[in-house]
Amino acid sequence: MNILVINCGSSSLKFQLINSDTEAVLAKGLCERIGIDGRLVYQPAGKEKEITEAAMPTHKEAIQMVLDALMNAKTGVIKSLDEVGAVGHRVVHGGEKFASSTVITAEVMKAVEECNDLAPLHNPANIIGIEACKALMPNTPMVAVFDTAFHQTMPEEAYIYGIPYKYYEQYKVRRYGFHGTSHSFVSKRTAEYLGKPLESLKTIVCHLGNGSSICAVNGGKSVDTSMGLTPLEGVMMGTRSGNIDPAIMEFIAKKENLDIDAIMNILNKESGVYGVSGLSSDFRDLENAAEEGNAKAKLAREAFCYQVAKIVGGYAAAMNGVDAIVFTAGVGENDGIVRKEVCKYLGYLGVQYDEASSSVRGKEATLSTSDSKVKVLLIPTNEELAIARETLLLVTK
């Protein structure tokens, strides 16, 4: 079966067509600037990228262009939409309503819409993408795969905040966590890589990228994670602040005469390593600048690594031990210096980092020495494949 994986942002759409039998990617691409002017980047397997500039007023036109590209007589990989057996949609927030992926029905759509307040930047775009696909492919089964679902196994003491309980009862204000599809995929692959039962492992997955989150996985289940009600909590990220004293918001608002929207814009888009360095949210830029003597770029990277290490240590305590610490995502997979700096703090756990592994990029590898009490691994994430697997499982039941 061919499964189309769709990941909609507010003005973008990423896609992959995956053969579920071989798990090969037949084609992939990206629609950009939806609602502005429109640009499709399409790449069939083994061939060059094709770039098409065309109007995309809404996600419906974008998805139509994707389907046309997939069926193109010259570079298409299917002859008709009948060759698409199902569509898997990434949905950012499922609240407490969804503890697993689900086939999309009218009732599911209503429940996803009710979570819009929890993810106002993401869920509406996800819904638009689903509705556009349904309009163009009305007889093709659709599946929603939620970023938050994997974390629904967290115990109450891990997800509750120290604010009046009524806000949880009335508005479901609690820790939800994100990147769940990635954390699930990587923790399962870690067990396979180590040749051990998933149920026997205590794993800490460090999904480090422009958006970063860390997850404690005990026996295959998420028991804590660093992102919270929104993807703003946790370690400092590319442009996001991560954990701060909440009173900072009031302090800056009064000093700068700003409203809450302006403060949230600062915390989401002007903070993190970009805010500290005053230079860039790209860790490669920061590394180059630090090597040239830029003190703030060096500080931004050091603070990031320190915060990651603190959370890893906390999760080792939460699980009363750890068997494997795993790096994944853009920074985790490609930045050997970040991995090395994080592991410098973890000697008390028995971590022995292999200095020679710092050059490893984007492929599965053991980063610790043979005598390390805790395994340190690099496991590339594959959220699209994870979504395809979940979709296949549900539509073939």
UniProtKB/TrEMBL annotation:
Catalytically driven reaction(s): acetate + ATP = acetyl phosphate + ADP
Binding site for ATP: K14, H207, L208, G209, N210, G211, D282, F283, R284, G330, V331, G332, E333, N334
Signal peptide per UniProt: none
Domain of life, source organism: Bacteria
CDD domains per UniProt: ASKHA_NBD_AcK_PK (cd24010)
UniProt record similarity statement: Belongs to the acetokinase family.
PANTHER family: ACETATE KINASE (PTHR21060), ACETATE KINASE-RELATED (PTHR21060:SF15)
Name by which UniProt lists this protein: Acetate kinase
Native organism: Lachnotalea glycerini
